[in-house]
Design brief:
Chain lengths: ~425, ~250
C-alpha cells in the first residue's frame, strides 16, 4: 500500500488539474481514505469473489505523462468522435472529431473547471479502487450534452502499451446528459506489449429527465492484466440507461455498476457477457437502488467459463419504502465448459416497498448432452456443435445491442473467443 | 446397405442387445417391432454412436464402411440418419442455421464445398412445402415451442435436406394425429429409392399402413426373434407380442 501512497505523492502535483483547488482537495481526501482502509479483502462482501491480490503483491505505478508510440488502433466503423487514451493519457493525434460535446478531461479541466465540479463531488469513491482512481485520475472522456441534443455515438479506445512494467492507468469518464438529451458510448479497453498492467476506470454518469444513453463496453485487456471498472450512475425521471458489458480480458477483472434511480418512469437495462478461460477471475457486481417508484430495471448476465477460470455475478436490487410499482428483474445464467471451472452467482433483493414486481433467476449448468448428440447425429463436428450451443447461450443478450456495427463486433468477438477455446 | 452382425450393446453395465443380426439391402424398407424395453431405441442410438451405448461385440457396416470406428458426426457423413423419438429443443439456434451447418458439415466430411445460399433456400422452401411446414417456423429456434407433430415433421425436413442413404426412424409415428402421420409417411416414402434403405423402429402397426415395409422383424430380449413380410405386423397387432415372441 505504501508504494501506492508514494506514487500519489509523486504524481499528484503533475496531474492535469493539479492547480484546481477543489480537485486537489478531493484528490487528497481520496488518498487519505485509501491510506486509512487499503484494499478490501475477501471478507468485504462486495469483494467476496474479486481477486485484488495482484494489486497488493505488485504495486502498479501511475505516471503523470506517457508518450509511447502506438500503431493503428482497432476502431469500429462508426460515425462520430473518437477518443484514444494511451497509458492513461489522451492522445490527440490518434483521435478525431473530439471538440464538440466530447472532449478529454485533461483539456476540460483547463477550460470548464467550474462546470465539472458538481460531477466530481459524488459518493462514487466508496471503494478503494475508486479512491485511487480519483487520487490519480490522469484523463478521461468528458461528455456533456445540453438539453434536447442528440450527441450521436462517441467511441473510446483505451490502450495500455505494456512498455513499462506494472504501469497503472486511472481514467475517469464524466458523462452528463441534460433533459431529453441522447448519446451512445462505445468503448473498448485493450493491451499490447509484454508486461502486466492495471487499467482502473471510473464512469461518473448522470442522466437528467428524459435523457437516454446507450453504453457498450468491451473489456478485452491482456490475460496478465488487472482490469477494474466502476460505473457510478444516477438517472432522473423518464431517463433510460442501456448498458452492455463484454468481459473477455484480464487475469483479474471486475466490473461494478452502482446505479440509483431517482425519478419515476425511468428505465435501467444492465446486461453483460463474461467469457472466462485460463485462470482468469472475472467479477461482475451491480447495486441498483430504486429510490422512486414506477420505474423499471432489468439485469441480464451470462457467463461462459472454461479451464480453471472463475466468474462471479453479484446483483443487488434495493427498493426504498416509497418506491412503489417498481419493476426490477434480474437473470444470471452460467455455463461451465470444464469441471475445473467455477461460476458463482449471488442475487440479492432488499425490498421495503410492498407493491413491486421483483424477480431474479440464476442457473449454473453444463452444455446439454442431448443437444450435442442431436447436432452430431446430423453431421456437425463436436467442436462446432459446442460452439453453436455456447454461441446460442450468449447470443440473446448480445442481440439486444441496438447498433448493428457494435452488435456484429461483439458477436464476432464472442465467436473468436469460442474458436480459440475449441 | 446396412449389415449388422451379432451386435451386443451394453447400457450402464446392462446388456440390452444380445446378438442382433440384421441385413437391410439397398432399396428396401424394414420395420423392427417389439414390446417396450425390447431394446428398440438402444439399437437406433447404438447405430448412430451415442455416448453411453457400449458395443461389446459384433459389427456394423454401412455400404461396406465399418461404422463402429466412427464418431456420430462421421456416421452422418457416411450417410446415416437417425430420426429421434424425442427431437431435442435447442434455444437460440434457428432451424435454418442448424440445417445449413449440418449440410455443410456433411459436405465438408465428403470433401465438397459449402452449399450455395441460394440453392439451400430453394431446397428448404421446396421441402417445407412438400411436408406442409411453415417456412417461418424454420426461422425459429430448433424445435422450441413446436408441437409433437411439428417436431416429427421437422425431423422429416432435416432428413429430406440431408438426403441420407440409410435412415433409422425411431418411433417417428408416436404422438402423431392422423394428418401429421400422413405427412410424415409422405416424407418417408419420398426417400424410398434404389440407393437408399430405411429401418422403421415402431411399437405400433399404424405407421405401416402408410409406409409399407418389405420385411418386418420382431425384437424381443435383445434379439430378432421372428422375421416376416408386411403381414407379420398385422398379426402382431391382432395377437400381441407375447404370443409371437414366445
Amino acid at each position: 500500500m505504501h508504494a501506492y501512497l508514494d506514487t500519489i505523492k509523486d504524481v499528484q502535483p503533475a496531474l492535469p488539474g493539479a492547480d484546481v483547488l477543489w480537485l486537489a482537495n478531493l484528490r487528497q481526501a481520496a488518498a487519505a481514505r485509501f491510506a486509512a482502509t487499503g484494499f478490501p479483502g475477501r471478507k468485504d462482501e462486495a469483494f467476496k469473489y474479486a481477486d485484488l491480490k495482484p494489486l497488493e503483491n505488485t504495486p502498479f505505478v501511475a505516471r503523470a505523462q506517457a508518450r509511447e508510440m502506438v500503431d493503428e488502433l482497432p476502431w469500429l466503423n462508426l460515425p462520430g468522435p473518437r477518443l484514444a487514451f494511451v497509458d492513461g493519457h489522451f492522445r490527440a493525434e490518434l483521435s478525431t472529431d473530439y471538440e464538440s460535446h466530447a472532449k478529454p478531461l485533461s483539456s476540460a479541466l483547463k477550460d470548464e473547471t467550474a462546470a465539472l465540479e458538481p460531477h466530481f463531488d459524488s459518493d462514487s469513491d466508496v471503494t478503494a479502487l475508486a479512491q485511487l482512481n480519483l487520487a490519480l485520475a490522469s484523463d478521461g472522456l468528458v461528455l456533456r450534452v445540453p438539453a434536447g441534443v442528440d450527441a450521436g455515438t462517441v467511441q473510446i479506445l483505451t490502450l495500455s502499451t505494456g512498455k513499462t512494467a506494472n504501469a497503472a492507468s486511472h481514467l475517469r469518464h464524466v458523462i452528463h446528459l441534460g433533459e431529453g438529451a441522447r448519446a451512445s458510448i462505445v468503448e473498448r479497453g485493450l493491451g499490447a506489449g509484454e508486461a502486466a498492467y492495471w487499467a482502473n476506470t471510473v464512469h461518473e454518469i448522470e442522466l437528467e429527465s428524459g435523457a437516454g444513453l446507450d453504453h457498450c463496453v468491451w473489456q478485452s485487456e491482456r490475460l496478465d492484466a488487472v482490469a477494474t471498472h466502476l460505473t457510478h450512475l444516477r438517472v432522473d425521471e423518464r431517463a433510460a440507461y442501456r448498458r452492455f458489458t463484454l468481459s473477455t480480458g484480464g487475469k483479474s477483472a471486475r466490473s461494478e455498476i452502482r446505479a440509483t434511480v431517482d425519478g419515476a418512469n425511468a428505465d435501467v437495462q444492465l446486461s453483460g457477457v463474461q467469457l472466462g478461460r485460463d485462470r482468469q477471475v472475472l467479477d461482475t457486481v451491480t447495486h441498483l437502488r430504486h429510490n422512486i417508484g414506477h420505474s423499471t430495471s432489468n439485469q441480464t448476465y451470462r457467463a461462459v467459463v472454461d479451464e480453471r477460470a472463475r466468474t462471479a455475478f453479484s446483483g443487488k436490487v434495493y427498493v426504498a419504502r416509497d418506491a412503489q410499482k417498481t419493476d426490477a428483474q434480474q437473470s444470471s445464467r452460467n455455463l461451465l465448459l470444464a469441471r475445473t471451472a467455477e461460476a458463482d452467482t449471488k442475487p440479492e433483493l432488499e425490498i421495503y416497498a410492498d407493491d413491486v414486481q421483483c424477480a431474479h433467476g440464476a442457473t449454473v449448468g453444463e452444455l446439454d448432452r442431448k443437444a450435442l448428440f442431436y447436432l452430431a447425429s446430423r453431421g456437425v463436428h463436436p467442436d462446432a456443435a459446442r460452439a453453436i450451443l455456447v454461441q446460442a447461450f450468449v447470443a440473446d443478450v448480445i442481440e439486444e445491442i441496438a447498433d448493428d456495427t457494435v452488435r456484429e463486433a461483439f458477436l464476432g468477438a464472442t465467436q473468436d473467443w469460442l474458436m480459440a477455446q475449441l | 446397405m446396412l449389415k449388422i452382425k451379432d451386435l451386443h450393446v451394453t447400457v450402464e453395465d446392462k446388456e440390452i442387445l444380445k446378438g442382433l443380426t440384421l441385413d437391410i439391402p439397398a432399396g428396401e424398407v424394414h420395420a423392427i417391432m417389439g414390446p417396450n424395453g425390447a431394446g428398440k431405441s438402444t439399437l437406433g442410438y447404438a447405430l448412430s454412436g451415442r455416448d453411453g451405448y457400449e458395443i461389446t461385440s459384433g459389427s456394423v457396416e454401412l455400404d461396406g464402411t465399418d461404422l463402429l470406428d466412427l464418431e456420430p458426426h462421421e456416421r452422418a457423413g457416411e450417410g446415416l440418419f437417425l430420426g429421434l423419438q424425442y427431437p431435442v429443443e435447442i434455444p437460440g439456434v434457428s432451424n435454418m442455421n442448424f440445417l445449413r451447418t449440418a449440410m455443410n458439415s456433411i459436405r465438408k466430411y465428403r470433401g465438397q464445398d459449402d452449399i450455395p445460399a441460394g440453392e439451400f433456400l430453394k431446397g428448404i422452401r421446396a421441402v417445407a412445402k412438400d411436408l406442409d411446414m411453415d417456412v417461418e417456423m424454420l426461422k425459429r429456434s430448433v424445435n422450441v415451442g413446436f408441437s409433437g407433430g411439428e417436431k416429427k415433421r421437422n425431423e422429416m425436413v432435416q432428413m429430406a435436406m440431408l438426403d441420407p442413404k440409410m435412415m433409422i426412424l425411431d418411433e417417428t409415428d408416436s404422438g402423431l394425429d392422423i394428418d401429421a402421420l400422413k405427412v410424415v409417411s409422405k416424407g418417408i416414402n419420398a426417400q424410398r429409392g434404389a440407393g437408399k434403405a430405411t429401418l422403421l423402429i415402431t411399437h405400433y402397426q399404424r405407421l405401416l399402413d402408410y409406409v409399407k415395409p418389405d420385411y418386418v422383424h420382431v425384437l424381443a430380449g435383445g434379439q430378432i426373434v421372428k422375421t416376416g413380410g408386411a403381414e407379420l405386423a398385422l398379426q402382431l397387432e391382432k395377437e400381441g407380442y407375447a404370443a409371437i415372441a414366445a
